[in-house]
Amino acid sequence: MKIPAAFLALCASASAFSTQRSGVAKTTALSSVFDDYVGAVDYRGKKFEFDPLNLSESYSPFVGWFRESELRHGRTAMLAVMGFITTDFFRIPGDMYSFDAIPKTVDAHDSLLKTGPMYQLLLWIGLFDIVITAPAVQAMGNGDREPGDFGWVWFGPEGKEAMDKKRESELLNGRLAMIACGGIATQSIVNGHGFPYV
What we know:
Blueprint: H1 2-14, H2 33-36, H3 55-58, H4 63-86, H5 108-115, H6 117-141, H7 160-191
Keywords: Chlorophyll, Chloroplast, Chromophore, Light-harvesting polypeptide, Photosynthesis, Plastid, Signal
Family: Belongs to the fucoxanthin chlorophyll protein family.
GO molecular function: chlorophyll binding
């Protein structure tokens, strides 16, 4: 009984990799969402248009929101990675933040949730969202601003081409940081070590 069941499962899974032929011809769009936004490159600078679920076509009014979310999560992850690494070596003053009170960085969340500072962090992030993010997202929906652009470009390069290159770098670094943040948290929990997490 096991052998026929295994054979049927093997055949069914193999059919997933076969090509499907249908009588309906596929059409290609003249313009793509990747033409409208910077960042359709991989780490080598080659063209990379990754949208396996076709969310940009299915939910085209939300593409700006998707990019805004990607940038925000990438920026937050870059800060989180630096925070994870830095707090393995340095701590801010105060007994509740000391190495004696919190020996491992990964335990800081639970410890500080019990003592109160995490609630204050939640309050400040919520205030930032209400005062800055909500009007910015509204302006983005109206077409008054680009996703992720808060107008803080004092250190940005001059010229559109140089700025687009910086924006691509920010996206790639943010994508890497999102993966790194998950990897750091997992390694810290699994093996109980701080930096370099091995």
